[in-house]
Amino acid sequence: MKSIIIIQVIIAFVSGLAALFLLYRLLNYFMRKRFQIEETNTAFAIFQVGIILSGSLILSSVLSAAVNAIQYLNKTGAFNMQSFLISLAYVVVFVIIGIFFTLVVIASSVFIFFQLTQINEWEQIKLNNIPTALISAALILGLSMIMDDYIGHLCEALIPYPSILQIR
Fold first, then answer.
1. What is the mean pLDDT of residues 32-40?
2. What does the alpha-carbon distance between residue 3 and residue 148 come to, in Å, rounded to a whole number?
3. Rounded Cα gap, residues 134 and 93, in angstroms
4. What is the secondary structure of the chain as a DSSP string?
5. CA dihedral of residues 1, 88, 153, 163 (deg, nearest 10)
6. N or C: which end of the chain has fewer CB within 10 A?
7. Where are the domains of the chain?
8. Do residues 94 and 66 touch, judged by C-beta distance below 8 A?
9. How far apart are CA 72 and CA 40, in angstroms?
10. Cα dihedral sign for 103, 104, 105, 111?
């Protein structure tokens, strides 16, 4: 049983690190190209911190469901290559779901917030307006905090738990 726990920790660490790195690289590349933001822009760095924390919140609930899948699929605690590969497939699917919903949360919160205000937030972030970046990052984090449990529950629903007999 101890080997499964060690494997779970390693899988969670590696997949979380890879997912956050991928999320950071994708969004950093897209936003710097799209909005021509400088490397030394503090407001953009604050905005990126909000994105990374947002991804961390959502991925933590997704990886929690992945750990549950690993535990369920490896009930005996013995290392079995077939159950390990099935567990790894669940982890990969859950991480993809987590990254997808992180992007959806970020895009929707930024789009809605930026449409509701009278200023051009991208231009303000480009001009290194720190309060605008803080508010934008807080909005992304807030929506992520609201959504993270539900995204985790979505992944949990994909685990093939046995049906429970219901008495009526």
1. 82
2. 29
3. 32
4. -HHHHHHHHHHHHHHHHHHHHHHHHHHHHHHHHHHT--TT-HHHHHHHHHHHHHHHHHHHHHHHHHHHHHHHHTTT-S--HHHHHHHHHHHHHHHHHHHHHHHHHHHHHHHHHHHHSSS-HHHHHHTT-HHHHHHHHHHHHHHHHHHHHHHHHHHHHTS-PPPPP---
5. -70
6. C
7. 2-157
8. yes
9. 47
10. positive
Q: Which residue's structure tokens are 């710097």? A: 32
Task: State residue 10's pLDDT score.
Answer: 86
**Considering all CA atoms of the chain, what is the largest pairwise distance in Å, rounded to the nearest integer?**
64
Q: Which two tokens stand for residue 106?
A: 């970020």
CB atoms inside a 10 Å sphere around CB 132: 22
Q: One-letter amino acid identity for 17? A: L
Give the amino acid at 30: F
Identify the band that residue 70 occupies on the pLDDT scale cut at 50, 70 and 90. confident
**pTM across the whole model:** 0.82
Under 8 Å between Cβ of 66 and 15: yes
Residue type, 33: K
